[in-house]
Amino acid sequence: MLPNDPPRWTIEAAETTSEPSHVAIIMDGNGRWAASRGLPRVEGHRRGVEALRRAVEAAGKAGVQYLTVYSFSSENWSRPQDEVMDLLNLLRMFVRRDLAELHRSNVRVRIIGERSGLPGDIEALLEEAETLTRRNDGLTLVVAFNYGGRQEIASAARRIAEDVAAGVLKPEEVDVAAVTARLHTTSIPDPDLVIRTSGERRISNFLLWQSAYAEYVFLPIHWPDFDGAAFDAAITEFRARDRRYGGRTAQVSA
Ligand code: FPP
């Protein structure tokens, strides 16, 4: 190949991008969906729960092993109190109404985020969801609730400092694995694909550490409109990506 020739890429690179094992979703656009229909915001969130059910079904059908959904961020407390209450109530309703069905479908539920400070009944419901489904070996549904990526990393750093102070960890042992082991996502693999709906192109404090090599797909629909076809479209886009993890794509030699 001449120096100025464009590289000829092999299809091997595309083929090495396997199916996503872990899909994470920033479920955005509930408010705008509602506003564009003259409905109260809570209606957008209610329809968002229905979209979440469709996402779980689509992930199961696609053979995805982990589905993580961003349902309430550490920063969402700054919303007006009635909206915060609506979101807390929807979580209560989701666990009460859907837990038995999720369990029947062999779904394992994991919760990530800060538990302390949550209303006691919500803490209990989250605990119940994890305990009931802990032996299931189908799809793992990871619900990020009161979750913030920076807060999670800060908390891991605090735990590392405590372990070093207690003499159970040496400073030279503080590495990527040591941080990873102290995140809320212990034993959950990194996301391969992060989907965000609503057309916004932001990470918004979601899985900051874990998404270091994730592929992002931004869908131009609001979350309440999400369905199996949207999920499949995101997977199709993911398959076309060439994941290199900082390495190089195989090139055809001249
Ligand atoms: C973002 O839309 C969405 C949220 C802040 C909440 C996500 C919640 C759900 C999908 C339903 C609840 C599910 C559970 C399990 C509790 P937005 O309100 O920021 O939309 P906007 O940007 O259009 O205003």
From TrEMBL:
GO terms for biological process: polyprenol biosynthetic process. GO terms for cellular component: cytosol. Keywords: Magnesium, Metal-binding, Transferase. It comes from the Bacteria. Coiled coil: none annotated. The active site is at 28, 76 (proton acceptor). Mg(2+) binds at residues 28, 215. Its cofactor is Mg(2+). Pfam families: Prenyltransf (PF01255). Its EC number is 2.5.1.-. HAMAP family: ISPT (MF_01139). This is Isoprenyl transferase. It comes from Methylopila turkensis. The gene is uppS2.
